[in-house]
Write a structure and sequence with these properties.
Pfam families: DUF4876. With 416 residues, this protein is mainly β. The protein is built from three helices and 31 strands. The strands form nine sheets. Strands 1, 4, 5, 7, 8 and 10 form a six-stranded mixed sheet that branches.
């Protein structure tokens, strides 16, 4: 195991010093031990046999996020694999992320803890801070080059003050150094909400192994029809028109594809090829949720698409007792995903497994506006620009770290 670079969302750790209440907010010493998986289990996934602890994970970035203030504290694990910090009393989310080589292969591992309390030990307890049991990271999903650059779901208000949603789009990005083909890629929106107060147990029951979608649309092609150059975008529009001319915010005449529902309320733009509609929640037109409280993800099925869909078909029973045929997607088939949730969420009701996205990003400043009609997006951050000029986007499988919230839509380019 060679290169180590981990970033972990973790909320409370133990130091050797005491806690003082005399001056300002109480600061508590905290510590967390991080170990690499043992050599006998170098690669494993959630819901399988747990890995045994191996050598200390040295140099991991550990990020503590205060759920009330959103203040972040980042430290690195030391030579013993221990992360140490001093945090104000409160509730924290903690994320650990890492990339290292095992058996000649680069693997991405991560671990997360949410809603962890950091409180000063009671006087006379003998404790000097807060500590947590050692953790062993889990194998994360890898993008294979495709990432979601941004999802413009919120819609906007027209100059006349009318709600407008038809300028929605999803932008995929070739984050690799090779030409990738978009043929047969599937774009999905989760059925499950991410709001902290919405349990939706009938959908949560499938996690973390499967994700239930409300929308499945597929790029057509035989495998080599739709090349996307390194560092280029693939734009999938709701309607491929210049929405600025009719009250929207984005010109989508240059979109690569559009999803079209054969209904009088939708518009089929002849110049923009249609996606293949595999499944949609609506019998009329399928829009992205304007409330930024869903997850979006991409995958590529193999084999016959009809057989694949039939293999997924599951009867989902709602609390009312009614049921609906839906298509839970195996988590291991997901290439990349992003969760949108209200700002300040604890994310105790995630829509994606942590191996796909351990965090979330947001549009809007509070749960009241829900990011709807704001005309803004969450856009993936730039990690670096290569010597050849190619822009590499950040992809740690943690949308809290990977995305910039409340950005202006930019479907065709990357903001450096």
């Amino acid at each position: 195991m060679k290169r180590i670079a981990f970033s972990f969302l973790v909320a409370a750790l133990l130091l050797a010093s005491g806690c003082s209440k005399e001056n300002g907010p109480v600061r508590v010493p905290v510590s967390l031990q991080v170990n690499l998986p043992g050599d006998d289990t170098p690669i494993y996934t959630p819901n399988t046999t747990r890995a045994t602890a191996g050598e200390p994970a040295v140099g991991f970035d550990v990020t503590f996020t205060n759920t009330s203030t959103q203040a972040e504290t980042t430290v690195q694990t030391d030579a013993s694999g221990t992360a140490r910090a001093e945090l104000e009393e409160g509730v924290y989310n903690i994320f650990v992320y890492g990339v290292y080589q095992a058996n000649g292969k680069e693997n991405v591992y991560q671990y997360t803890l949410t809603s962890q309390s950091v409180l000063a030990p009671a006087e006379g307890s003998g404790a000097t801070g807060v500590t947590f049991p050692a953790v062993i990271p889990e194998l994360a999903a890898v993008s294979g080059g495709w990432v979601i650059k941004e999802v413009y779901n919120s819609g906007c208000y027209s100059p006349a003050g009318k709600a407008y949603s038809y300028d929605q789009y999803i932008c995929l990005y070739n984050n690799s150094d090779q030409v990738l083909y978009a043929d047969s890629l599937v774009v999905a929106m989760s059925s499950k909400f991410t709001n902290d107060n919405m349990d939706q147990g009938y959908l949560s029951q499938f996690l973390p192994g499967r994700v239930v979608p409300d929308l499945l649309i597929q790029v057509p092609g035989n495998g080599k029809e739709h090349p996307v150059q390194p560092g280029a975008c693939l734009v999938i529009a709701n309607q491929g028109i210049n929405h600025i001319e009719v009250g929207g915010k984005v010109d989508l005449t240059r979109a690569d594809f559009e999803w079209y529902d054969d209904h009088r309320l939708d518009v089929d733009v002849p110049e923009v090829p249609n996606m293949i509609n595999l499944y949609g929640y609506s019998a009329t037109i399928n829009l992205l949720s304007v409330q930024s409280n869903r997850a979006y993800f991409i995958l590529r099925p193999t084999g016959d698409i009809t057989a694949w869909m039939n293999s997924l078909k599951t009867s989902v029973v709602y609390p009312s007792g009614t049921s609906k045929e839906m298509y839970p997607i195996p988590a291991e088939q997901i290439i990349d995903g992003v969760q949108l949730a209200p700002k300040g969420s604890v994310l105790n009701n995630p829509a994606l497994p942590s191996a796909v996205d351990v965090g979330y990003t947001y549009v809007g400043e509070n749960d009241g506006d829900s990011g709807a009609r704001l005309g803004l997006v969450a856009s993936r951050k730039v990690k670096e620009k290569t010597a050849q000029g190619r822009i590499v986007l950040q992809d740690t499988n943690n949308s809290t770290l990977d995305f910039l919230p409340n950005q202006e839509p930019s479907p065709y380019s990357v903001k450096e």
